[in-house]
């Protein structure tokens, strides 16, 4: 038994039962996301599918908004684990390979979990605002990987030349205040480098979004198109060897 396992508190029978029921609620809620969409998510309907009286579900989830928040945090966590695992299998010095791993990890997760992806990156759910104190850490976990890569690209002297028109003054005015956030502590990137990294991320996210939501219609070679866009995005901030 590992030290971590011995240090982890042992749940009692009642706590284990509650945990199991909460997991079932999330499982059924994901099924409803797929069939009804986030806007139509109903605790009563989920309780019915679980064979639970409608009032009983409120002992485990206090509201629809709380359920949405749990689903969002779980989805972000699952996405981050996939991207982290893919990224960390690449040698640190292989900067382009790390970018490819981030992109392919994002795409593979989105294709496997299209309704979770839609919850995170699709249309906002009416009358719902995600609580920042619950969702920010999970929601920025993938960006932490991207930031590590961007910082390593900069430190290695491999940052691509900024495109014509991206003046330092423009980038500083738009993104300079962001760099004072603790999120960027310990990095050496400036506003121009951040603009280049965000441009690459936006292109990557747009490529995945367009495929998952079929915004370009039927694609004869979706994987090939994504590979082209992934290379194009990398050129926005990684200089070729």
From TrEMBL:
It comes from the Bacteria. The keyword 4Fe-4S does not apply. The keyword Membrane does not apply. Keywords: DNA-binding, Transcription, Transcription regulation. Residues 42-61 bind DNA. Gene3D superfamilies: Tetracycline Repressor, domain 2 (1.10.357.10). One of its GO terms (molecular function) is transcription cis-regulatory region binding. It holds the Pfam family TetR_C_33. Residues 19-79 form the HTH tetR-type domain. PANTHER family: HTH-TYPE TRANSCRIPTIONAL REGULATOR RUTR, HTH-TYPE TRANSCRIPTIONAL REGULATOR RV1816. This is TetR family transcriptional regulator.
């Amino acid at each position: 038994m590992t030290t971590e396992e011995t240090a982890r508190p042992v749940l009692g029978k009642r706590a284990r039962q509650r945990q199991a029921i909460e997991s079932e609620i999330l499982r059924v809620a994901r099924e409803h996301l797929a069939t009804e969409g986030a806007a139509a998510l109903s605790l009563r309907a989920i309780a019915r599918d679980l064979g639970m009286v409608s009032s009983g579900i409120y002992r485990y989830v206090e509201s629809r908004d709380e359920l949405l928040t749990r689903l969002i945090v779980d989805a972000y966590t699952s996405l981050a684990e996939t991207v982290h695992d893919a990224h960390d299998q690449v040698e640190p010095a292989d900067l382009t390979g790390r970018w490819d791993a981030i992109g392919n990890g994002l795409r593979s997760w989105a294709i496997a979990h299209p309704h979770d992806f839609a919850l995170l990156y699709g249309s906002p759910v009416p009358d719902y605002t995600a609580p920042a104190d619950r969702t920010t850490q999970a929601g920025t976990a993938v960006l932490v990987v991207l930031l590590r890569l961007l910082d390593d690209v900069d430190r290695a002297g491999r940052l691509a030349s900024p495109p014509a028109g991206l003046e330092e003054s423009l980038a500083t005015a738009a993104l300079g205040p962001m760099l004072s956030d603790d999120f960027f502590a310990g990095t050496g990137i400036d506003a121009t480098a951040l603009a280049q990294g965000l441009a690459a991320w936006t292109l990557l996210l747009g490529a995945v979004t367009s495929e998952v939501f079929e915004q370009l219609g039927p694609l004869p070679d979706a994987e090939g198109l994504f590979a082209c866009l992934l290379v194009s995005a990398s050129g926005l901030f990684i200089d070729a060897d």
